[in-house]
Amino acid sequence: MSINLFLKIVEISEGFSFVISILAFSLFTRRSFETKLVGIFFLLDVLTFIFIHVVPLHGKEINVPQTACGTFQFLVATTLYYVAFNRKYKKPLVIVASLLFVLSISNLLFLQGFDMNSYTNSLTSVIILAYCMVYWYRLMVELPVQQLHRFPMFWFNSAFLIFSAGTLFLYLFAAYLTEVLHNDLLIYWSFHNILSIVQRIVIMIGLWQDLRNIKLGSSLPQVR
Amino acid sequence: MAGPSEYQIGLLIAAGTVGMLLLAIAIILFMVFYQKRMIEEQYNRQKLELAYQQKMMDAALESQESERKRVAGDLHDSLGGMLSAVRVGITTLARQLPNPQVLEQQKYMIDETINTLRSISRDLMPSTLEKFGLVHALRELCEQLHKTTMMPITFNEHGEFERLAPKQELMVFRIAQELTNNAVKHAQASSINVILSGSSKLEMAIEDDGVGFDAEAQRTDRKFGKGLGLFNIENRARLLNGKLEYTSTREKGSKIILTMPL
């Protein structure tokens, strides 16, 4: 695996993030709140990518904006699931988000510092997986729509589930690989970026479904 | 003691990642199929509930009809017979009196009572419907209403009509009866038209030039115990697999069309 190929994959992934941001904010007034939050989520990604390329960062400093981006993305994801849970579980979600925020800052300042903050990432993945499972459970109990594939949040949730499930083991072992085995993570991170491309493609299917629902001009067929 | 090698860690990551991804995909697929199955079950349950409700409705209407038939029979045979006997008795008595005119008023009252009784009995169970079918029964209904209200009530038929099942004929007749009665009682109409047409489907339209009505408001009233007539009409239409269409404005009166497959 060459560094060029690795960078190419990163660029493709960021390109998808950019497209998602544009799509999520097109027809702004008619888009659902969930879609706008997804737009913000990926816009943060794009802004971080631009920041890294604009600001002259050296060595491990490059990890700092990415860690900050991950933390803010987690807050956006929590808001997204809060909306998806019909604005229920406000207190637990606020507690979880606050705890993770504090842990993330503490990790950045006192533990992993300029290294890749894999502890924060692992915890984020576990929490996102929990959000996904709660969301599936609610979907199973409430049966809100007749055609699940026409429900944008179904695709958003699937994308988060696939990405978090696929990257959890990478994050768990990232610190050991870099600190003990001195691995450059190039192959592992290429796989991580391929997964992020898959995540973005699934998100785009959700956005397309949302657009389709808007164009059809009717609400989704509800289960009676 | 040396820790796990890079190969072992790599293997662990690969196995864990593949396992997690497979689990994620399995959960997504499970959700899709579970949702599909649940919706199918819900649909089947709704279908069963609907069928049960229809059966209940059918049974309720049937018992209503058999009760009407019994009351009509009792009125006609028992009370009607007794009144006729009284009428004959008064006539005989009048013949024995020096001045038979004194009983003319009583004879007139008994005649009126017998006529009213026959009319009630006919409304409860129209014998014309059983003997000659829907078209004749509807024509008779319009004629009777015209006689009692002096309002122009017309009946028109288009197409050929074969006799329906007795139960269906009775239901269509009851709908017509309820709608014409509503037009007379509540719509302040000055004329009513009943139009029956049929080919592949039967269509019965009842229109008046009255003040019109709001079907939705009637349905709301049903919750408070009013609007039962409309409720019965809709139930009967449903049992006939028919469809009711309401066109109602204050300027043009109302038009209600019942369409049912033949």
Question: How would you characterize the overall build of this protein?
Answer:
- The complex is a heterodimer of chains A (224) and B (262).
- Chain A is mainly alpha-helical and 224 residues long.
- Chain A has helices at 3-25, 33-54, 63-84, 90-111, 118-142, 152-179, 186-216.
- In chain B, helix 1 packs antiparallel against helix 2 and helix 4 packs parallel to helix 5.
- The model of chain B has no long low-confidence stretch (mean pLDDT 85).
- In chain B, strands 1-2-3-5-4 form a five-stranded mixed beta sheet, covered by helices on one side.
- In chain B, strand 2 and strand 3 form a beta hairpin.
- Chain B has 262 residues and is α+β, with helices and mostly antiparallel strands.
- Chain B is built from seven helices and five strands; from the N terminus they run H-H-H-H-E-H-E-E-H-H-E-E.
- The longest helix of chain B is centred in the N-terminal third of the chain and has 91 residues, at 6-96.
- The relative contact order of chain B is 0.07.
* Pair with the biggest interface: A-B, 29 and 23 residues
Shape descriptor of chain A? globular
The helix content of chain B, as a percent range, equals 55-70%
What oligomeric state is this?
A: heterodimer
Structural class, from secondary structure content of chain B?
alpha+beta
Q: What letter string, H or E per element, gives the SSE order of chain A?
A: HHHHHHH
Basic shape of chain B? elongated
Strand order of the largest sheet of chain B: 1-2-3-5-4
**Overall average pLDDT of chain B:** 85
Helix content of chain A: over 70%
Order of helices and strands of chain B: HHHHEHEEHHEE
Total DSSP helices of chain A: 7
Biggest beta sheet summary of chain B: 5 strands, mixed
Which SSEs are present, and which pair or pack?
The complex is a heterodimer of chains A (224) and B (262).
Chain A lengths: L2 H23 L7 H22 L8 H22 L5 H22 L6 H25 L9 H28 L6 H31 L8
Chain B lengths: L5 H91 L7 H21 L2 H6 L1 H16 L3 E6 L7 H20 L6 E7 L2 E8 L6 H9 L4 H12 L3 E7 L3 E9 L1
Helix pairs in contact in B: 1-2, 1-7, 4-5, 5-7
